[in-house]
Amino acid sequence: MTLYQIKPKFQARLRPLVQKLAARGVTANQVTLAAMVGSIVVGGLVGALIWLPGIFLLMPVWLFLRMALNAIDGMLAREHNQQSVLGAYLNELGDIVSDLALVIPFVLPFGTGVLPFAVLAVMVECAGLIGPMVGASRRYDGPLGKSDRAFVLGALGLWLGLGFGPGHYGGWIWGVLCLLSIATIVRRVQRGVQEATVARAASSRSTPSTEE
């Protein structure tokens, strides 16, 4: 089970706010851009003010807000007729930019072992995005999807923000996260291939033969 699977309950709590935002003319694309810009700003602040005690506490606070913004933009698009091609691009590219902006500051306390995880985070999202290109759906399989990454980064930010150092296990933490990311990529590819194969088989059976 991943955090993505509890998303409907989270959305239900946000729906009254979404309805108010839609009534005031707020668009899904505006929310998407706000989430991306906010992530860049927070990542930049944490990196620039790394010497400031407690600066990493910004991470869990912002990551929770970002999760809410991600849910809100999707609900505005789907439930208030705001879906667009531009919105699809902004949504996916914004997520990748935001992830990188929020992961990179962890290089400062943990070292360059964070960088492979940053690369794998992008690959995880690409593995999900390729689904529609091959006849499958957009894949959100875990164990370490976008929401799960946000939870982990928030927990690490809280740990550092409360004054605990990276410790001797910092390298192991990112190594485990890299392995979970690889497992996520493999699962998304496997299930995407399976889904596309089933869809193509069903399509070929339903296509009438032209032979007499």
Automatic annotation (TrEMBL):
Nuclease in keyword set: no
Keywords: Membrane, Transferase, Transmembrane, Transmembrane helix
Superkingdom of source: Bacteria
GO cellular component: membrane
Segments crossing the lipid bilayer: 21-42, 48-65, 171-189
GO terms under biological process: phospholipid biosynthetic process
GO molecular function list: phosphotransferase activity, for other substituted phosphate groups
UniProt name for this protein: CDP-alcohol phosphatidyltransferase family protein
Organism annotation: Cupriavidus pauculus
